[in-house]
Amino acid sequence: MNTGILKAEGLCKSYGKNEVLKDLDLEILPGKIYGLIGRNGAGKTTLLGILTGQNTKNAGSVTYDGQEVWENQAALDQICFSRELQGSAFGGQSSIRVRDYLRAAAIYRPGWDEEYARRLLEEFKLEPKKKIGALSKGQQSMVTILAALASRAPLTILDEPVAGLDVVMRERFYQLLLEDFAQTGRTFVISTHIIEEAASVFEQVVILDQGRILENCPTEELVDQFRYVSGREDVVDEAVRGLQVLTTHQMGRHKTVAVRGDPVKLEVPMGADVDVSPMNLQNVFVALCGHGDAQ
Q1: Pick from 152, 217, 271, 275: CA 20 to 30 A from residue 289's CA?
Q2: From CA 260, how far away is CA 56, in angstroms rounded?
Q3: pLDDT tens per residue, range 237-249
Q4: Domain end call among 187, 203, 221
Q5: Quick one: three-class SS letters along 63-84?
C-alpha cells in the first residue's frame, strides 16, 4: 500500500491562555508503526485532531502527500482517526446501534473492508443490535478498533485504543495490528499510556512533552542510548562523568542514576562494584518527562 508523508510544520494551538502546542514540527513517514506517548495534558489528542483535520490550529500547516489536510477531502479520505467513544455523545441508552455506527463508517471510508469488519465483529463478540451507549468501555474500544482496522485507510491513527480492554484483549489487539501491517504495509500511529505492553510493536516512537516533540526516533535506537548505573556514590559519579544524567535516586552512599549517551563512554573502574543495566521504553519516557530528580 502506497501512503504519503504526513507533515506538520510550526503548529501552534492555544485554548485561551493555555498554550497546548508550541511551534511543533513532526513528520510521519509511510509504512511504519508509530507510538505517540506523552503525559496527561501533553497535547496528544489535540495534536492528533489537528493532524487529521478534526481540530483547528492557531498557526502552522499540516500536509499529507504534499496537500493541505484541512477541508481537503482527497487527503482526508486517506486518513482514519479513531478515538475513544463516549456513550453520552450518542445519547446514552438511546444511542445508535453498533451496526448503524459501522454502516456509517463504511460510507465515509473509501477503502472499507466489509468482510474484515464482519470477522472482527464476530471475534470481538459484539452484538450488532446493541446501542453504543449500552456498551462497556472495553466494548466501545472494540468498536473503535474494528472501525479503524476495517477502514483500511493508508494512514490509520488510534488514540488510546486499548482503554478499558483487559490484558488478553490488549494483546489480541496488538496481534491484529501486526497482522494487518504485515498484510497491507499501511502506516499506523498509536497513542497510549500503557507503554510497556506496546513498546515491542512500535517501530518508531514520538514523545510529546509540554506541547513540543521531544523525540521522533526508531524505538530501539532511542532506548539503546539509556542506562541505569548504580553503586557507591563516588564510583557512580566517576563512571558517568561526561554523560547526561537524567534522574538520581540516592539512599545513603548508594546511588542510582539514569544516564543518556554512548554506553562505551561509561568509565567503570576494573573490579568496581557498579551495576550497569538497560532501560526499557517506559523507563526512558519517565526519565525524559519526569521533570526533576528524585533524591
Answers
A1: 275
A2: 36
A3: 888 888 899 999 9
A4: 221
A5: EECCEECCCCHHHHCCEEEECC
